[in-house]
Design brief:
Order of helices and strands: HH
Shape: rod-shaped
Keywords: Coiled coil
Mean pLDDT: 78
Distance between the termini: 71 Å
Low-confidence stretches: 1-20
Number of helices: 2
Structural class: mainly alpha
């Protein structure tokens, strides 16, 4: 699909949110003048605002999911550290004959 009716492709959400947008090309005045049928009207602005709001909502949702995943990863890492410490204690007890 097209992004804002231009020739830029709409950015796709990949694995990383920091991927560069394909819509970074600036129009030169000659290109803008050639689009006499593309006038800025309140309707065009409203449509762009709607698309922008939708895009920002998607970014917000992705950000929330990333924060939740990071919190879960930290919790899992803490559990792993606890298990590792318990395992080290058991190995030490076993090696020193503490389980007899």
């Amino acid at each position: 699909s097209r992004h804002f009716g231009s020739d830029c492709l709409e950015p796709r959400w990949g694995r990383f949110l920091s991927l560069p947008s394909p819509c970074t090309r600036q129009l030169v005045p000659a290109e803008m003048a050639g689009d006499s049928d593309k006038q800025v009207t309140p309707e065009v602005i409203a449509q762009h605002q709607k698309e922008l709001d939708s895009c920002l909502a998607d970014v917000e949702a992705a950000s929330k999911k990333a924060k939740e995943a990071a919190a879960q990863a930290l919790e899992t890492a803490e559990k792993c550290r606890h298990i590792e410490e318990e395992t080290k204690k058991m190995i030490e007890q076993f090696n020193t004959g503490g389980n007899k």
